[in-house]
Amino acid sequence: MTEMPTLTPDICVIGAGSGGLTVAAGAAQLGASVVLVEEGEMGGDCLNSGCVPSKALLAAAHQAATVSQAKKFGVSFRAPTINRANVAKHIAGVIAGIAPHDSVERFEGLGVTVIRGRGVFAAPDAVIANGQRIQAKRFVIATGSKPVLPPIAGLDGIRPFTNETIFGVTEPIEHLLVIGGGPIGVEMAQAQRRLGAKVTLVEMARLLPKDDPELVGFVRTALAADGVDLKEGTNIIRLERNDDGIAAHLANNEGTTEEIAVSHVLVAVGRRPNTDGIGLERAAVTLKGSTIQVDQRLRTSNPRIYAIGDCAGGPAFTHVAGYHGGIVLRNILFRLRAKVNPDLIPWVTFTEPELAYVGLLETAARARFKDVRTETLDFDTNDRARTERRDAGRIKIVLRAGGQILGVGIVGPQAGELLAPWCLAIARGLKLSAMAGLLLPYPTLSEISKRVAGNYYAPRLFSVGVRALVRGLMKLP
After folding, report:
1. Containing structural domain, residue 115
2. Per the confidence metrics, is the pTM higher than 0.90?
3. Is residue 453 in a domain?
4. Beta bridge partners of 175
5. How far apart are CA 191 and CA 22, in angstroms?
6. Where does this protein have coiled-coil stretches (predicted)?
7. Cα 459 to Cα 422: distance, rounded to the nearest angstrom
8. pLDDT of amino acid 2
9. Helix crossing, 84-98 with 51-69: angle to 10°?
């Protein structure tokens, strides 16, 4: 019997999504030997069925919306014609343009050994993949997650869309039922509505339930203005396929029921870690449900094995997986005791207006500290926002009495971009006075950050005591 070939790298990475690629590229370029195992597409969910295609679709939807919004500027166009096949072609082209950066060829060029196949642990120190045994000094599990299909009667019989299938659609969508009012649900609801579909969004709680309700209100208003039929506090009892399409039977929290007819269904109710069938029990890796348990250094119950990204729980964002990858590299390669700091993690919902956060929401901050303050400012005070007729929005700063910034939420145009200096401020422990003292160009959207910071200090700056001091100083020669 032929003996199975064995590879003995410094690091074996299972999963070639954002986190896994971060570890593989970083470790190889720093001189470690690396084996990367991936059974699916290089680039993982983000490149192939997540961030990249969704933002490409949103860009197409934005172009369609620009036509209808142009009237506010005295400009008129004919109603846009939506070619679904060409939209899908646009999305595929964007993916293809980015794919070489995540390709097998690039990583092999960096010195990484790439094995295409499913990686399964055979022992606490060994993985089998595509007929090869890998005995590495350290392992990094970066297997990501997959969409959850809720236990709704009749769902199996209608073949619903998920984020893995919605972006390749070339057929007309007459009426889309979106199940789930989280980030994916609201982004897709707005995009599909702007691309000509009638859209009904059903959420059992409230829209964007994990976000600040004060800021979510602006997104809710925008979705309704676009024509999305929002049904919050509503459950789907069952789905039935009939000659006319799909009948959705709904019930809200007050007990009122209704039936609506739709043509397609998109499920966006959450994700589940990809941890089944990879031999974690043989690797002595402990699970909590389907999530791999890790400590602050992202080590599993087996000290030779780390887990990062979606499979390790926490926010299921591409940039979080990349951040995790950096933590693991510092731990493995440099023996630093680097730890995850969840208070630094930013996130954005890419609706129009965008909704962006970094740090603690107000409720979490008040649960942790007694001296929490907030400062808000609306975008209709910003001259650039007014010139572009995009002045619906608000910035909200959560801080302690001494000016320590705990969290920032922005809902408005380019909120994700405007969040960048606040990410730096929180990461570096800067106080609000640093933002208040910035010199920024006029007119720009970024001025709203400087102004909201300045407003916090204004009562003290223009107080009776300061005014008296100035009067006294003005008497000096």
Report:
1. 6-147+272-342
2. yes
3. yes
4. 198
5. 30
6. none
7. 23
8. 57
9. 130
